[in-house]
């Protein structure tokens, strides 16, 4: 909207007046004194001067020094005070949804304002912003999507890209775009913010842009490795020459008689731990990274601290939600230290609802110890101030991608030294701290300096689709400009996949389907499943399965009651030979139970996670909104209009095939059983957690699957048995076979020789489907 200069002046004056008023409030004054103690405050004028004088600026500083909350705020205050408020639009990107929200909330409260006024946030499908908003915190993904409409970022005056040291795929992608954009937008200011890691790399990438370092203040944090932790627990005496061998079991028994404390560690198989760890080399490190974390050891360490160390919050780094929830359960069952009332145990995980936030930051009530169980989200983006003790398990879930086998995994792996350093730094913000590392020094020495950037570790299809929708040229040449360009084979795989699923044509241009997939912020296969679900009127199952694939499946695997849990899952599957149908039925059961207020019991009896199911419900709603935005669902119509075939399991399986293709396994009879083959890796097996594990003969000749994982061999995790007709209709492009009479699918190993009449019919149906997608 055009506004006149005089209106602008009036608006700028008004903003300034309002800023001064809210700053005068008592709350804001108290906040101001907190802010002035942050290391960033001392750099305020140097920072503002550098922003004014340079188009690109790199700022590094220890986590907690005030980069995220202060730097965008300094710019905002300055612009408003200098009566440029009407013209300023500051965007600060965050890699994670949870940090975008919590930082926006923090900054608006520091300014004594309501969230959604001058300061707002926007994350996928959720926003608090208004026409007043001058400083917007958003996820990097949201900004990337905004670029489709606004390739020049018109109207944005300052862009701050946060946490670039994490080298997330979105941030690396954004940096390529911005480097190309800057010459065309000389008035745009770009500020890159990073923890104290490798800031030079980014400065170089932007033609030696100036850097500012914010020196931190932290109290010293002492560091204990596994050997020291064990020693503290009185198992192993330092005076003994060799920790690793010998009759440590006997020694342990003697020790335990000496010290009642060692009871704490009695569940921990320390010898195995220790032997494994201490013979480590980089090679064997990789082998163990897949092995389970010993939660007993974590628990014992927490107990040790509670009994022997002074006050102060404990921050525990675990690998993911599984560990967090298991540890919470353990702590509950064991009636932690005999007095649950003394502890405030809080999970901190990227996908948790935001209501739990305040407690994480607030000081606990007197006589209560705060114990935060976190993933690596607490490593650099969220600062819990009062942490005195850090327990570092040394691992994080890490995505990896094997381009040769087209194999993507998300497994716990050893962190880098840089991460280990970050984790340690979380203690000692208010007083000297201690970091307990649950691995030996020798393991630490074998860790990589830095983690590989995500762009080198993940499949590139979603990114490639995005590059096409932003019209940035060919994917290969665009990505060659990245800070660390990905392997050309990964690029080729992504393009091939997008062609196979029909999102790109032979010229590598977007098809109508591809264009729709670009607008859906999710993996293209999940997007395709949703579109097909809408078109073929089985939207409810498509939404449910897509939500589980995009998030996680709701089945929990209790270690001690695995068989009963497996049986529960199998009973949901019935005779469908499908993990996806099992999931669908479980979700339907949950919804029914919920109507009677009995969902907790239902989840408990059937080994389902209520948190995941709730998350799936939310995601389903979001997905439905997205489909309605692009006109595939009309929400004013009755839901039954989109659910004509929702109870038709054959149809649902066909839709699954449409989404999951080319993740296909061929089932071949071999003697009494069945052997399974995929095109890329040859023989595979069914994951033991699948309802299809142990089935000797399948009624239909193929399985489609969500993901394959590598352990000893290669396993497909969740699969559904489908017919060759589903493949014929929804699989890849049809190409004539050599003999000329039948048809062969694009995937070389799937041979159909269907009669010409069938093929002609399929071609007509496919043609009609393409027309539907062109709207
Ligand atoms: P950095 O980005 O440099 O890591 P931040 O700007 O995130 O630092 O944090 C600066 C300080 O503000 C920290 O001491 C942190 O504890 C505090 N802080 C940040 N967010 C919140 C919040 N939501 N509630 C309370 N304190 C917060
Ligand atoms: Mg930060």
Task: Give a written overview of the molecule.
The chain is built from 32 helices and 26 strands. The relative contact order is 0.07. Helices cover 44% and strands 16% of the residues. The protein is globular and about 80 Å long. α30 (649-660) crosses α31 (724-730). With 775 residues, the protein is an alpha/beta fold. It binds adenosine-5'-diphosphate and magnesium ion (MG).
List keywords for this structure.
seven-stranded mixed sheet, helicase, single chain, binds magnesium ion, alpha/beta, hydrolase, about 775 residues, RNA-binding, globular, signal
Layout: helices, strands, pairs:
Elements: H1 5-23, H2 26-37, H3 39-42, H4 44-53, E1 56-61, H5 67-81, E2 90-94, H6 97-110, E3 119-123, E4 126-128, E5 135-139, H7 140-149, E6 158-161, H8 169-181, E7 189-194, H9 199-205, E8 211-214, E9 221-224, H10 226-232, H11 248-258, H12 270-278, H13 282-289, H14 295-308, E10 313-317, H15 321-333, E11 343-348, H16 357-361, E12 369-374, H17 377-380, E13 387-392, E14 395-402, E15 407-414, H18 417-425, E16 433-437, H19 441-446, H20 461-469, H21 475-479, H22 488-500, H23 512-519, H24 524-535, H25 539-550, H26 562-573, H27 579-595, H28 599-606, H29 610-629, H30 649-660, E17 664-670, E18 673-678, E19 682-686, E20 702-705, E21 708-710, E22 714-716, E23 719-722, H31 724-730, E24 734-736, E25 743-745, E26 751-752, H32 756-773
Parallel strand pairs: 1-7, 1-8, 2-5, 2-6, 3-5, 6-7, 9-16, 10-12, 10-13, 11-12, 13-16, 19-22
Antiparallel strand pairs: 3-4, 14-15, 17-18, 17-20, 18-19, 20-23, 21-22, 24-25, 25-26
Bound molecules: adenosine-5'-diphosphate and magnesium ion.
Residues 38, 61, 63-70, 102, 105-106, 361, 383, 385 line the site of adenosine-5'-diphosphate (ADP).
Protein name: RNA helicase
Domain Helicase ATP-binding: 48-215
EC number: 3.6.4.13
């Amino acid at each position: 909207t055009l506004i006149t200069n005089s209106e602008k002046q009036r608006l700028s004056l008004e903003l300034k007046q309002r800023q001064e008023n809210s700053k005068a409030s008592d709350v804001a004054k108290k906040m101001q004194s907190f802010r002035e103690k942050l290391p960033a405050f001392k750099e305020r004028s140097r920072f503002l001067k550098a922003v004014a004088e340079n188009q690109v600026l790199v700022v590094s500083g220890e986590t907690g020094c005030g980069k995220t909350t202060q730097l965008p705020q300094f710019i905002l205050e300055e612009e408003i005070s200098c009566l440029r408020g009407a013209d300023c639009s500051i965007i600060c990107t965050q890699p994670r949804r949870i940090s975008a929200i919590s930082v926006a909330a923090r900054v608006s409260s520091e300014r004594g304002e309501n969230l959604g006024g001058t300061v707002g946030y926007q994350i996928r499908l959720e926003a608090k912003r208004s026409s007043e908003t001058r400083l917007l915190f958003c996820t990097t993904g949201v900004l990337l999507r905004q670029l489709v409409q606004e390739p020049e970022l018109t109207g944005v005056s300052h862009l701050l890209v946060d946490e670039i040291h994490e080298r997330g795929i979105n941030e690396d992608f954004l940096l390529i775009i911005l480097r190309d954009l800057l010459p065309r937008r000389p008035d745009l200011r770009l500020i890159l913010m990073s923890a104290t890691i490798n800031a030079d790399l980014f400065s170089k990438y932007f033609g030696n842009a100036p850097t500012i370092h914010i020196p931190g203040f932290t109290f010293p944090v002492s560091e204990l490795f596994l050997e020291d932790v064990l020693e503290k627990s009185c198992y192993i005496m330092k005076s003994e020459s060799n920790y690793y061998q010998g009759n440590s079991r006997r020694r342990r028994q003697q020790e335990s008689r000496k010290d009642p404390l060692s009871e704490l560690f009695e569940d921990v198989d320390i010898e195995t731990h220790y032997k494994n760890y201490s013979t480590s080399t980089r090679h064997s490190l990789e082998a163990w990274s897949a092995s389970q974390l010993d939660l007993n050891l974590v628990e014992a360490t927490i107990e040790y601290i509670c009994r022997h160390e002074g006050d102060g919050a404990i921050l525990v780094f675990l690998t993911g939600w599984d560990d967090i929830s298991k540890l919470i359960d353990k702590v509950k069952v064991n009636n932690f230290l005999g007095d649950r009332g003394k502890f405030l145990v809080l999970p901190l995980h990227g996908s948790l609802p935001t209501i739990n936030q305040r407690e994480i930051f607030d000081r606990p009530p007197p006589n209560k110890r705060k114990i935060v169980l976190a993933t690596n989200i607490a490593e650099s983006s969220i600062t819990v101030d009062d942490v005195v003790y850090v327990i570092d398990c040394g691992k994080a879930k890490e995505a990896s991608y094997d381009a040769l086998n087209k194999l993507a995994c998300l497994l716990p792996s050893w962190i880098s030294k840089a991460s280990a350093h970050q984790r340690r730094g979380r203690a000692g913000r208010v007083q000297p701290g201690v970091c307990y590392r649950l691995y030996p020094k020798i393991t630490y020495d074998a860790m990589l300096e830095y983690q590989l950037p995500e762009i080198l570790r993940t499949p590139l299809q979603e990114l490639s689709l995005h590059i096409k929708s932003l019209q940035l040229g060919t994917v290969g040449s665009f990505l060659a400009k990245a800070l660390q360009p990905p392997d050309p084979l990964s690029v080729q795989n992504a393009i091939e996949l997008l062609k196979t699923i029909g999102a790109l044509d032979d010229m590598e241009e977007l098809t109508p389907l591809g264009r729709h997939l670009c607008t859906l912020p999710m993996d293209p296969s999940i997007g395709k499943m949703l579109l097909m679900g809408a078109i073929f009127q089985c939207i409810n199952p498509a939404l449910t399965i897509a939500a589980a694939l995009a998030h996680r499946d709701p089945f929990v695997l209790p270690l001690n009651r695995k068989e009963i849990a497996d049986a529960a899952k199998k009973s949901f599957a019935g005779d469908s030979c499908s993990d996806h149908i099992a999931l669908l039925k479980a979700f339907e059961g949950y919804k029914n139970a919920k109507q009677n207020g009995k969902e907790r019991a239902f989840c408990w009896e059937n080994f389902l996670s209520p948190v995941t199911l709730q998350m799936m419900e939310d995601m389903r709603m979001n997905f439905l909104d997205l489909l309605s935005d692009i006109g595939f669902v009309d929400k004013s119509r009755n839901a039954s209009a989109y659910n004509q075939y929702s109870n038709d399991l054959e149809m649902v399986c066909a839709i699954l095939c449409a989404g999951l293709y080319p993740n296909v396994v061929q089932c071949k009879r071999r003697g009494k059983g069945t052997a399974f083959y995929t095109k890329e890796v040859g023989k595979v097996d069914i994951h033991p957690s699948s309802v299809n594990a142990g089935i000797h003969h399948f009624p239909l000749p193929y399985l489609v699957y969500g993901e394959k994982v590598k352990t000893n061999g290669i396993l497909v995790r969740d699969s559904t048995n489908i017919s060759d007709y589903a493949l014929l209709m929804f699989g890849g492009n049809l190409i004539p076979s050599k003999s000329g009479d039948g048809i062969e699918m694009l995937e070389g190993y799937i041979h159909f020789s269907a009669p010409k009449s069938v093929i002609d019919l399929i071609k007509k149906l496919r043609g009609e489907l393409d027309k539907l997608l062109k709207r």
